[in-house]
């Protein structure tokens, strides 16, 4: 059993670092804007921590392109926060046109152009 699995079994809620790592690795999809919250029937496992969502607890169903994952309410909160963080991090990775390096590249003449 790997460390992340043992850590999930020991903690009452999934560690933020595990959810962050799973989002970054693509094993947990980012939370979409379409989410249902309802009373659980005890049939689903949490996509974040792997534990069964007990009957009568609140469960979140995240709608997306794949089979909808379910999560405990407190797991979902962390998942949603980390999805937003991950999205804002990826936006920061794309250089904006105002970044100094991009401005220099745009100002430089194209290698194939002639200046006469």
Summary of the model, kept short:
This protein has 116 residues and is of the alpha+beta class. It is 41% helix and 11% strand.
Number of helices: 4
Task: List the domain count as a whole number.
Answer: 1
State the helicity in percent bands: 40-55%
CATH architectural category: 2-Layer Sandwich
Radius of gyration: 21 Å
Give the averaged pLDDT, no decimals: 75
The CATH topology turns out to be first zn-finger domain of poly(adp-ribose) polymerase-1
Query: What class would the helix/strand composition place it in?
Result: alpha+beta
**Quaternary structure type:** single chain
Number of strands: 3
CA distance, first residue to last residue: 68 Å
What is the string of helix and strand elements?
HHEEEHH
Give, in spatial order, the strands making up the sheet with the most strands: 1-2-3
Biggest pleated sheet: 3 strands, antiparallel
Shape: globular
CATH C-level class is Alpha Beta
Strand content: 5-15%
Poorly predicted regions are 92-99, 101-106, 110-116
């Amino acid at each position: 059993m790997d460390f992340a699995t043992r850590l999930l079994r020991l903690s009452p809620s999934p560690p933020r670092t595990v959810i962050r790592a799973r989002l970054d690795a693509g094993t947990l999809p980012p939370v979409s804007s379409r989410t249902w919250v309802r009373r659980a029937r005890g049939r689903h496992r949490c996509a974040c921590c792997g534990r069964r969502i007990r009957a009568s607890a609140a469960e979140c169903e995240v709608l997306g392109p794949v089979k909808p994952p379910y999560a405990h309410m407190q797991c979902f909160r962390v998942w949603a926060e980390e999805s937003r963080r991950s999205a804002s991090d990826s936006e920061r990775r794309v250089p904006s046109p105002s970044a100094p390096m991009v401005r220099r590249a745009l100002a430089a003449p194209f290698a194939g152009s002639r200046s006469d």
